[in-house]
Amino acid sequence: MADDNLSARLVEIESMLDRSRKRFEEGSRLVEDAHKALADMQQQLIGAPNTSGRDDGDEVASKLLASLRASGEEMPATLCGGRLAVDQVQRLIRIDGHPIAITEMEYRVLELLAFARNNVVTRTMLLKHLYRRSDDQPQPKIIDVFISKLRKKLRNASNGAEFIETIPQRGWILRDIESPSAAA
Predict the structure, then answer these.
(1) Series of mean pLDDT values for 10-residue runs along the chain (184 residues)
(2) Residue 117 and residue 68 in contact, taking contact as beta carbons nearer than 8 Å
(3) How far apart are CA 78 and CA 151, in angstroms?
(4) How far apart are CA 92 and CA 89, in angstroms?
(5) Helix (H) or strand (E) segment spanning residue 84
(6) What is the DSSP-derived secondary structure letter of residue 138?
(7) Which of 51, 78, 93, 157 sits CB 3.0–4.6 Å from 85 for a disulfide?
């Protein structure tokens, strides 16, 4: 009798494990589909490289610049079209035509935000863009420091305009702000 109960219980447990395994596989497929859909959306929205694996999503930032440069199209002399200009040739930032002094790392943060302007750039994307090798990456909070310093410099140079918007739990967006003469 005890053997029958034990045998029935083992069959029940095997059945539960089988159902759990099938749910897990289905969940994994859904996650992969979601990553593919996200990569397709990035491709359409910001011209990011089309990726299909979940690990590839972290490479978007570094591949973004490379794919834009390799596309064969003429790279614009400046990024952004409003008050803020990111000059790639001279590696300068200008607001209303006036250059702003920023560090190399701040420039690189702003460059990626400008390439993806009006689209969210995540902390991971910025880390991958700034620090190519995973073994030389600092604490992720360093991105907050760069963003904070950039915001302050841009705000001071533009009489209080906010160019960088924080999207909670996701990242940052660089917004185009019209020049005062264009808005009139």
Answers:
(1) 78 85 80 70 53 45 55 52 77 85 89 83 86 71 91 90 89 75 46
(2) no
(3) 19
(4) 8
(5) strand 84-87
(6) -
(7) 78
